[in-house]
Specification:
The protein is mainly α. The chain has one domain. It is built from 5 helices and no strands. It has helices spanning 2-19, 30-37, 48-54, 71-91, 94-102. Helix 1 (2-19) runs parallel beside helix 2, helix 1 (2-19) runs parallel beside helix 4 (71-91) and helix 3 (48-54) crosses helix 4 (71-91). The protein is globular and about 45 Å long.
Length: 103
């Protein structure tokens, strides 16, 4: 679940970057992506530290020595990505949100 939370956050951020007319970097580092978005939306920077917590889940779960996250960590990861989703959706015009609901 933490891997999927990281992936969802990455996709939300990259989609938001496109919306902001910023070319997304080819990276899994959510802190880098937030900093990039922050060049046009300073408010998103409040999520930087939280999103940085998710970055290790992008690659580390692919290796056998990865320690399975606790239920507490999993719930936190989900809460962080939900907070990012809400933040981004509040900034998009209704017609964009309505199109997203159709898909």
């Amino acid at each position: 679940m933490c891997f999927h939370a990281q992936q969802a956050a990455e996709k939300y951020l990259k989609g938001y970057l496109v919306w902001l007319d910023i070319e997304p970097k080819r990276t899994h580092d959510l802190e880098d992506l937030v900093l990039l978005a922050g060049t046009k939306d300073k408010g998103i920077l409040v999520l930087k530290d939280k999103l940085a917590e998710l970055t290790p889940f992008a690659v580390e779960p692919r290796y056998p020595e990865f320690e399975v996250p606790s239920l507490k960590d999993t719930k936190r990861a989900i809460k962080i990505v939900q907070e990012l989703k809400s933040y981004i959706l509040r900034r998009l015009p209704d017609e964009v949100k309505n199109e997203a609901d159709k898909g």
